Amino acid sequence: MRLLVTGGAGYVGSVVAAQLLEAGHEVTVLDDLSCGRRDSVPDGAAYVAGDVAAKAGEVLAAGGYDGVLHFAAKSLVGESVEDPRAYWEANVGGALALLAAMREHRVPRLVFSSTAAVYGDPQTVPVPEDAPCRPANPYGASKLAADHAIAGYARAYRLAAVSLRYFNVAGAYGRYGERHDPETHLIPLVLQAAAGQRDAVTVYGTDYPTPDGTCVRDYIHVADLARAHLLALDALGEVIKPGTWRVYNLGNGDGFSVWQVIETAERVTGRAVPVREGARRPGDPAVLVASSARARAELGWTPTRPALADMIADAWAFLTESAALTRLPA
Ligand SMILES: NC(=O)c1ccc[n+]([C@@H]2O[C@H](COP(=O)([O-])OP(=O)(O)OC[C@H]3O[C@@H](n4cnc5c(N)ncnc54)[C@H](O)[C@@H]3O)[C@@H](O)[C@H]2O)c1
Ligand SMILES: O=c1ccn([C@@H]2O[C@H](COP(=O)(O)OP(=O)(O)O[C@H]3O[C@H](CO)[C@H](O)[C@H](O)[C@H]3O)[C@@H](O)[C@H]2O)c(=O)[nH]1
Question: Which terms are listed as keywords in the entry (predicted)?
Fold first, then answer.
């Protein structure tokens, strides 16, 4: 298929773009490099620099596109509380501009990066797709708004679309991994502390109603997550008919606490992780664990690297093999 990947210079988008190329698809990446890197765009993909809202129409006007995978977004929860305008503009404005361009140029398939953040603090875990959506911050709210827009466009304009709601993405895929600046995600921060690249990692809250008092999350390997995109793409137009929008939660169904992540990282790296205990981070649910039964049943998706230690080992290999290698203290 001929595919547009927005945000393909970022963490998840670059891994998906790499897997799409390996599967024989033709890939164009559209990315403004606001938080991605040019050298994360896989060789073999065409690259267009620019903002989705401004450039998607121009790219799709070339014609012949079979689908779009839309990763480009702003995705820092705290920042979204401080500056909601940027989140509504980028995440909803970007999605609306993309949908309009897809409609105009008759692109029939869309895979959208949604998020567990649309559920807010869930009443039941594991969280199924029909759980109530009560986002606790503008990031989750903007993603949910985009989901609704996609649903309406699919129904009215015969688009086949899926929203994949990722839980906590981790690990790396060969030369593609997490290189955010600033970094806010737990596993890369823990590994940077293990590597001596930061003095310590702060545990955000030790008084949650969980077995060890720290937040519990469902970590999913980025390579497994990426494969779900390829399976969803195959299903679009066939199993998921034009005029249909379908949601899939993606996680492993197992929860790990912040302390468990730190202990596993110490075991995997053989290094101590300096830790500071801090206050709760506003907006963090105590427990977020996915039910991915629907993705397994309907897409035939099975995670191949569900073990937390494997995800951390792959992220550690990525960190130590990247440019930081030369500066890694013994
Ligand atoms: N990483 C996670 O744990 C996680 C969890 C749930 C959902 N998601 C969603 O998955 C998607 C990818 O996440 P990620 O972690 O790879 O993020 P990322 O920041 O690494 O990648 C996003 C990419 O999009 C680009 N971009 C942002 N705004 C753009 C715009 N307006 N026009 C063009 N390019 C733009 C950035 O430069 C970057 O390369 C996002 O939509 C995010 O909301 C991520
Ligand atoms: O320095 C840190 C960073 C994180 N944490 C804790 O570690 C857990 C994981 O935090 P991350 O920032 O790695 O991930 P989130 O759970 O906040 O966010 C992820 O899950 C969200 C769903 O709520 C969204 O999908 C979001 O895009 C995605 O990154 C949380 O309990 C957080 O409080 C710490 O203790 N210290």
Answer: Carbohydrate metabolism, Isomerase, NAD
Verdict on whether the full-model pTM lies above 0.80:
yes
Q: Is 256 helix (H, G, I), strand (E, B) or coil?
A: strand
Minimal-distance CA residue to ligand 2 atom 32: 204
Query: Which atom of ligand 1 lies closest to the CA of 50?
Result: 33
State the DSSP H helix or E strand holding residue 275, giving kind and residue range, or none if neither: strand 275-278
| 15 and 143 inside one domain | yes
Rounded to the nearest angstrom, the distance between the alpha carbon of 12 and the centre of ligand 1 is: 7
Number of folded domains that form the chain: 2
| Residues designated as active site | 139
**Helix or strand (DSSP H, E) at 110:** strand 109-115
* DSSP states of 185-205: -HHHHHHHHHTTSSS-EEEE-
Full domain range(s) for residue 85: 2-169+221-249
Q: End-to-end CA distance of the chain: give it in Å, rounded.
A: 47
Same structural domain for residues 243 and 94?
yes
What is the 8-class DSSP label of residue 176?
B
State the CATH number of the domain containing residue 181: 3.90.25.10
ipTM of the complex: 0.97
What distance in Å separates the CA atoms of residue 112 and residue 120, rounded to the nearest whole number?
A: 19
Q: How far is the CA of 295 from the centre of ligand 1 (A)?
A: 22
My answer on whether 196 and 239 are in the same domain is no
pLDDT in tens, 149-194: 999 999 999 999 999 999 999 999 999 999 999 999 999 999 999 9
Residues 134 and 91 in one domain: yes
Are 51 and 131 in a shared domain? yes
Closest residue to atom 16 of ligand 2, CA basis: 168
Residue 217, ligand 2, Cβ within 6 A: yes
